[in-house]
Description:
heterotrimer
Amino acid sequence: MTAQQSPPRRTAAPRTEWIPAVGGRGGNPDAVWRVFLRKPATRLFGGIFAVMVLVSLVGPVFAGDPVTTKHPVLTPPSAAYPLGTDNLGRDFLARLLDGGQISLLVGFSVAAMCLTFALIVGGLAGFYGGVLDTILVKVMEFFQVIPGLVLALVAATLIGSNVTMIVIILGVTMWPGVARIVRAEAMRISQLGYVESQRAAGFPGLRILWSDVLPNALPPVLVATTMTVARAILAESGLSFLGIGDANRPSWGALLNQAQPYIASAWWMALFPGLCIFLVVLAINMLGDSLNDALNPSIGKVK
Amino acid sequence: MKAALLYYGRLLGSAVILLLVVITILFLLLEIAPGDPIQTLVGDVPVSEALRAQLTASFGLDKPIWERYVIYVANVLTGNLGVSFGTNVPVSDLILERIGNTIALAVPAFLISTTGGLVLGSIAARTRKGWLDALLSGGAVGLFSLPNFWLGLMLIMFFSITLGWLPTQGKAPFGQDGIALEYLILPVMTMASTELAYKLRIMRSGMIEALGQDYIDTARSKGLSSNRVLWRHALPNALLPMVTVSGYSLGFILAGSVLVERVFGWPGMGLLFIGAIERQDTFVVLGIVIVLTVTILIVNMLTDVVYGLVDPRLRAQFTRSAKPAPVEPADATVEASR
Amino acid sequence: MAFLQVENLSVHLPTGPRREIEAVHSVSLDIERGDRVGIVGESGSGKSITGRAIAGLLPTNPRVRVNGSIRFGDREMVGAPARAWDEIRSQTVGMIFQDPSTFLNPVMKVGQQVREAIPAARRSGRDAASDPRVLEVLALVGLPDAAQVAQRFPHELSGGMRQRVLIAIAIAKTPDLIIADEPTTALDATVQAKVLATLDDTVRQLGTALILISHDLAVVANMTDRVYVMYAGRVVETGTTRQVLTDPRHPYTQALLRSVRSLTDEDTELWSIPPDLRREIDELVTGGVR
């Protein structure tokens, strides 16, 4: 038998895929990214999302003043006022676009905050284990028991209700969800051989955590963070619907609150803000789903 | 038996600690809050010095923080949740009055979302029609992407205003005491929507995962029909995560009552809470939060207990009394060597 | 007519959204009643897939393609409807799987799982632990405390006991053929010997045909009369076990045997098989090697 390598035959041979040293999560990052981008769901909802973000960022510049009350009161959508006017004679389209900025800003800020806390707490708990883990898990449990909305309401009333406070409050109530996932992944990865050998070699724990454990824990964490953006936007809309928020810059939820007395007479005031929330949240959720599929491919359902 | 007691004891202990922590945090939040408590108590009327002194004494506001904390905790634990500012009605009375209405929404919402999620999730998981699965699955995502209070508003707009089939607000016609069914429908639907969507997805993924397990192969190898494999092998395993999810969902449903009651003007605890927040009626606010937290803690504990009993892998901890372990087969190493 | 005749079997499995692999290529075997046949090969050789194809237990993914012929007597099974397969699996073919920790339903009592395997007893309402047929089967596989075992859940039993339960499930229907897919790979070495002895005993007592699939040559050597050697989805050599293992003709079989070290070998380098022999194999096969 010759010892030389014969080139593998192309037919029927599976294409070699780099399986990362860590637990076979997905394939190599490039392949995952490409699969993700190719999915029709990604393109459709990514498009919707991008449009909405763009419009929210840029729209207010073109749309006119959301605060002036000089327009006729309560007119339905028309050529002059594409989304009608509200009960104080303000251009609704302008208000909607402005509101979008707040809703989206809060959503992303909260998610960023959650991710940070989650990586720190979850990473430490999962990697070090032991007493630290037990304590941190208790902390996470605590935040999950109290209904976030209720706590947020109480805190907002007592402490203040500007955008920053809302972001902080929501971040504080929502981070445990992501932290649990970070912890589970960190635990799984920390038990893998090559992490153990790094520990045995004497590498400082924090360094292993930062450069090896956390980066490999990212895939499911990214999916969870995406979903967190969606949930944060929904939570913020709930809070502002109940009146918590900056009165001068109402977000979509606050617009819905203002619309409530007029649902019989001005349907456009109740329809559009909610529709916007729905579209953005749906797009983000679908993107998260799509990302999840790309990371954990299953070759069809087995029934 | 001892193992069981220890387990339950630990659950209970955790719950109590959590409750104390919640109470403490609420108390601290109160302390941080800006504003003059006396002024808030009295409202818009200017306060005289004498009145201020009197109120301070009676509410114990002049005592050091530690004493106030202990008094507060002691009060809560004995059921004294303070009184409502302005009306002086004990908070516990107010809550008892309203809690029934909220439960009248929460329980049907819970039942509908759980059964609906179970049934639809199973259908989505096992159907061979890809479009049906996509419809149910995607529909679920759509449903929990909706702000449920907006769904409520849209339902009102459609069914009440446009079609006139159902009333818009309240729980019964004016003057009537109980709850009329047509008033119940829209709020319950709104409340159940997000949870149903969520449970559908959980059930679906639970089923799919169960169907991919190895023991399904063993079941098929016995020549069992695919239906039997589904109902007797996959389903029981898929239901396990549903137990925990459903149990915890009751907490979310209760918390969500705040929004739903606001939309429908439903006189339950949620509406009471909102009103109290607007009026800065502190004791009412805290009282409701405490009642809510206690309820959720109890529900979650019960869920954990039920799950422990339902999953045979955990059940062994509690119910195994003196069953002796089965005998290992006789040593056959001699026969095995050839 | 052979009890089981497999001709030119090929199985294609999906490996990605638009990719598939031919896991089994042109495999033929025949089994008579009471035959004891082994299928050996390394991981990925397609031996498990072949075994599963014979039992009709390939994944139900519609992208899985089976071509060729699998005949039980004169009954062609490739392309047969599900009910035909259900029948075959109910009466004729039993399968023993590899990992006792995952192949038993964790929430169902063991006795009930065994009883389900007996077609006649399936509808019985009685408690499975008191069903004499169940107890008999459990005793047969060397679980003397059958009544106790039947009441247990899988996680309450040891690995060896669980594997015996899997054997019990396979034989409970008194099948004509048992396919054992790596039945002892997941077990400790000491337990392996016991379980294999049990399997051997049982098969002998019942007179069942046996297809033993394993990568472990020693296991196959002890328990089979004939053997098929597989590599990369193809059968590369076949013959009586004694012949193939003492006088292998095919370079792969030779290589396989050479890479097994006995306890008494000293100072010899570990021999390993070069990475990809498919081209060589195809050349040799078309050149007329058995």
